[in-house]
Amino acid sequence: MKITILALGHRMPKWVTLGVEEYTRRMPAEVRVEVVELKPEDRANKTTARVLAAEAERLELAIPRQSQRIVCDERGKPLTTPMLAAWMQSWMRDGVQPCFIIGSADGLAESIKATATQTVSVSGCVLPHGMVRVILAEQLYRAWSLMHNHPYHRE
User: Fold this and answer.
1) CA distances from 19 to 14, 30, 42, 144 (A)
2) Parallel, antiparallel, or unpaired: how do β-strands 68-78 and 32-38 relate?
3) Nearest C-alpha neighbor of 60 from the set 140, 6, 20
4) Which listed residue, 84, 86, 94, 155, has the most CB atoms within 10 A of its CB?
5) Can you tell me the distance from the alpha carbon of 46 to that of 62, in angstroms, rounded to the nearest whole number?
6) What SS3 class is residue 86?
7) What is the phi-psi region of residue 66: left when phi exceeds 0, alpha when psi lies from -120 to 50, beta otherwise?
């Protein structure tokens, strides 16, 4: 199974890159996690609506075909580890290729949100987008650990 984390934002601080690499490296060969970065739209002299529309166009081109779209948004359904583990089991069983979408500083266009199968929140707080990447990568590893009774996850 391939899980894509599609994120608007580039030139992340080193701690973001290292954190994501740490958890994606731990994943087994049958669960590959790929992070795809897209450069956010230049905001100079543009309305937020224009910025989000331009970013939505780039996102649409980058979202893998036939993937299940999962939008990360602080107003989404709270994501739990058991929920993610259950999703992961069903994705593996059904051959689903999930794509988690993380917006830019202004969020995501409604056109992207409308096409999502799920809208989830990794925290009730508004977080830096790089931190969302790290938390999501860790939670994917933790969900896999829970599924396989690995000692990383403890109740």
Assistant:
1) 8, 21, 27, 17
2) unpaired
3) 6
4) 84
5) 23
6) helix
7) left
In the DSSP assignment, the letter for residue 31 is S
67: closest CA among 3, 15, 127? 3
Contact 68, 91 (CB under 8 A): yes
Helix axes 14-26, 129-147, angle to 10 degrees: 10
Structural domains in the chain, CATH included, are: 2-147 (3.40.1280.10)
Question: Taking a C-beta distance cutoff of 8 angstroms, is the pair 52, 109 a contact?
Answer: yes
| Amino acid (1-letter code) at residue 154 | R
What single letter denotes the amino acid at residue 10?
H
Residue at 56: amino acid letter: A
Unique residue bearing structure tokens 């707080």: 125
- pTM here is 0.94
Tens digit of each residue's pLDDT (9 = 90 or more) over 20-31: 999 999 999 999
Contact 153, 142 (CB under 8 A): yes
Beta strands at 68-78 and 118-121: parallel, antiparallel or unpaired: parallel
Decide: 98 and 104 in contact? Cβ < 8 Å: no
